[in-house]
Amino acid sequence: MDWNKLRIFHAAAKAGSFTRAGESLSLSQSAVSRQVGALEAELGVALFHRHARGLELTEQGEALYRTAHEVSSKLAMAEAALDDARDKAGGSLKITTTVGFGSTWLTPRIGEFLNHYPEMSVDLVLDDRMLDLSMREADIAVRMRLPTQPDLVRRRLLTVHNHLYASPQYLAARGTPQSLSDLVNHRIIAYGEDSPPPVNDINWILTTAQRAGLELRPILSVNNVYGLLLAVESGLGIAALPDYMVQTNKRVAKVLPDIAGRQYDAYFVYPDELRESKRIAVFRDFLLNKVADWKF
After folding, report:
1. Fewer Cβ within 10 Å of end Cβ, the chain: N or C?
2. Same fold, 89-150+272-293 and 162-262
């Protein structure tokens, strides 16, 4: 089988549409469709069910996708090994973490890292779901839960603390709550129930109130923590946020500081195969230095 056709098929299966696959490959939608059609003709089987809403793999397509994904992962691993064979740290580094940590804390520091290592480039993937590092969906992850996979190297990075926050404008208009029971009369913003939460008990303020016999009805639910922050900054209401997001943010203020959510550790994680990687080592050391300089 032609690897170029397999590569395009793999991208289409992963994206769920010829259009999105074309965007990721810098090809037109028609070019992706032609290549997949040619592969199907060569194999004599249909690889996709084509619907108006997108692509769905057939049984044969699922089997081929698993193999193509494994080959793609091994090629990426080989490319990483070649990059790490250089005397200097160079090449690309794909990093994934949660939307909240990545957008508010990590992204502003990437520029300094790249200034130190100009031969490197970074692909930062912000997603509250956990990408599969063993399948090389990323090289490094910063995770808010302890990984359970045995083939991953993990190092504790920091301890995350959580409190309630509101904007000064909101507090001036509606008053500052003095007790947990006061929150019943305030606008509460929560994490969306239909979304995969990046940490356990992310809506801890709702469960804390419930245990006290209080019912808080969120006026708004948002499917990522950065969205919660923007809603708080706009003056919409009160939300539970990780302290790392807001410690230098003058647009929000801590509310009921004696009430806190569960603390949890964040971990620096990467595949065991990359244990000797220069790229991993320099980013790990950079991140540990930045964490040491920051008061969490």
Report:
1. N
2. yes
Residue 282 has pLDDT above 70, yes or no: yes
Question: What ranges in 16-166 are assigned the alpha helix state H?
Answer: 18-25, 29-43, 59-84, 99-101, 107-116
246, 197 contact by CB (below 8 A): no
Q: What architecture does CATH give domain 162-262?
A: 3-Layer(aba) Sandwich (3.40)
Counted residue by residue, the chain has a size of 296
CB 49, CB 58: distance < 8 Å: yes
Q: Does residue 84 have a pLDDT over 60?
A: no
Cβ atoms 130, 141 nearer than 8 A: yes
261 pLDDT band, cuts 50/70/90, is very high
pTM to 2 decimal places: 0.69
122-166 confidence digits (pLDDT tens): 999 998 888 888 777 889 999 998 888 778 999 999 999 999 999
Question: What residue segments make up the domains of the chain, in order of their start?
Answer: 3-82, 89-150+272-293, 162-262
pLDDT one-digit tens code per residue, 209-241: 999 999 999 999 998 899 999 999 999 999 999
Q: How far, CA to CA in Å, does 186 sit from each of 84, 154, 169, 203, 231?
A: 54, 40, 14, 16, 14
Q: How does DSSP assign 59-70, residue by residue?
A: HHHHHHHHHHHH
Domain 89-150+272-293 is classified in which CATH homologous superfamily? Periplasmic binding protein-like II (3.40.190.10)
- Candidates 269, 283, 284; CA nearest to 149 is 269
Q: How far apart are CA 68 and CA 10, in angstroms?
A: 6
Q: What is residue 81's predicted lDDT score, i.e. its pLDDT?
A: 62
Which pLDDT does position 82 carry in this prediction? 63
- Report d(CA 81, CA 2) in Å as an integer: 24
